[in-house]
Specification:
three-stranded antiparallel sheet; single chain; 5 strands; two-stranded antiparallel ribbon; mainly beta
């Protein structure tokens, strides 16, 4: 499986929010987040590169969400 983006401030070229995007477990950042690790690096969204820091949110030993900051 993977993760699903349900909220963001990022917009597409059509000025719509980039929600309901599936993030597969094969991606390096998702692998790290699933292990409970912080991801810092670059991320390609659409046709634009961002610097990103993603922090997993855990509850009872499970990852239930991710907080991300992109520049």
């Amino acid at each position: 499986l993977g993760m699903l983006r349900i909220a963001t401030t990022l917009k597409t070229n059509l000025q719509e929010r980039r929600i309901n995007a599936f993030l597969p477990n094969e991606w390096q950042n998702v692998k790290m987040l699933n292990e409970g690790k912080i991801y810092k690096g670059r991320l390609l969204l659409g046709k634009k590169w961002y610097l990103v820091q993603q922090v997993p949110i855990g509850q009872n030993g499970k990852i239930i969400g991710v907080l991300a900051v992109l520049l």
